[in-house]
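REQUEST FORM: STRUCTURE PREDICTION
Request ID: SP-0412
Submitted by: Lab K.M.
Chain count: 1
Length (residues): 582
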Amino acid sequence: MTGFLATLATIWRLAVPYFRSEDRLAGRVLLTAVIAIELSNVGIMVLLNQWNARFYNALQDRNWDSFVHELLIFCALAAAYIVLAVYQLYLNQWLQIRWRQWMTRKYLAHWLTSGFHYRMQVLGDAADNPDQRIAEDIQIFIDRTLGIGIGLLGAMVSLASFVVILWVLSAAAPLTIGGQVWNIPGYLVWAALAYAAIGTLLTHLIGRPLVSLNFYQQRYEADFRFNLVRVRENSEQIALLHGEAAERERLGTRFAAVVDNWLRIMKRTKKLTSLTSSYAQISVIFPFIVVTPAYFAGHLQLGGLTQTAGAFNSVQNSLSFFINVYRQLAEWSAVIERLTGFEVAIQTAADLGTKTPAIAVVAAPSLQQVRLDAVDVTLPAGTPLVSADGVAFAPRDHVLVTGPSGSGKSTLFRAIAGIWPFGRGTVSIPTQASVMTLPQRPYLPIGPLAEAVTYPTVGSKEEPARIRELLLAVGLPALAERLTEEQHWNRMLSLGEQQRIGIARAILHAPDYLFLDEATASLDEPAEAALYRLLRERLPATTIISIGHRSTLMAFHDRHLVLAREGDRYALREAALSAVAS
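STATUS: Completed
RESULT:
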């Protein structure tokens, strides 16, 4: 019961925010309409149950006028039911897409905030495959929540309606066994309750493992799909290394997990289907077995017999609601667990920036430089990596940072950018100062080339002539006339060309502080020198801090900082311009 109540609380927490959001009016109206239609359908079923008795009595009495009259009533009820069913589906789907749209925006906003998505990966990505949780799990959660929730409400109302009918019919058709009449109040209700209780218990015992099996099936499917995407994204490297056999082996291993778990689901589903199918077939005949002795004893007519059987089936179906939707419940439960895990992972990533100790990136109104005070950068597990104390980058400063590979240069830049909270200390940045970091491999979004250059600006109004001029300036004349062309640019362009676009992006945005993490390392020395001269010319007011290994970079910087080994970590220290670490 504790677990059940906790699950209900989780469902409430996941579902209710939408109906309190800015789209709450439309959501509430649509939900009310769907519920009203469901209740109307229950009312029609009650009317059809009463019609059933009159119709079969007319047949038994060979009453033509009553027969025709009942046919007309049936046509009216059937037409109303069809119209309601169509609009219930239509309004349900409308509510689903609006709800999904809101939840997707919400999860994207939380995931893509302040580098949370990056921190989740650094922590080991406990919430595996966030793309699947946003793209699929939200849709399944909404569909199952509405389907099961509305269905449960309908079952409860139907149960209340038909229990009354069945209780009355129990008095009209008393329990008859071997010619002996037993006056048991509401015995048909108790029979339906016992039948449904036994079926529900057996279904739960057999179907319970499906919850975890569905959870892992979604995980394995997402892992397999993610690795297929990685092969596509890295096809050049795989082809160059002739790694096709290795990738087939890796993908085969991933897919084997999909198949193995699917076989487990098949076996469990076979057992569950055997039970539910048997239960459904017995349900057809069970009410007649209970009521027929009273019919043959002359206590009720044929219409009363069919009405009683119909009411019994309605009560039994209402009580057996969880049996009929158990597989959907298992999938729903797995999705709820995955969405909850995703929210917990996002919150954990958010808490990293606020817990103590952590590297704090703060705005300093009175400061005119970026300053690092008592900064100790560690790995997520706490292993010391880099320390920097009293290091400052003044306006228009050009600084080269060098050090051995693996000494933590890039991680230090991540800490300054505010996406690496692991460690302690303070990074102070002047208020209103803009900071841009260019990694060694720039990110180029899929879409028009102009958007790749202006990224991360959304809906940039930059003049095409300005973008063309920048592409020419960074040495990409062949791309200058392809601004509207949509491509997967990270695959289309060499790493050197991508780095040239990164430099064009930096010039376009003109940040106050520009951090270059080996952002020109894939270019030859003359091309690299040309780009650095271009940066000095186009960004005279920008402070440029570069990570690099080439001695030729010294000519374009005024200061040199080196990461030197000190005890269990590397420390950032001032060095002479001539002392270049290789």
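NOTES: DSSP finds 18 helices and 15 strands in the chain.
Reviewed by: T.R.
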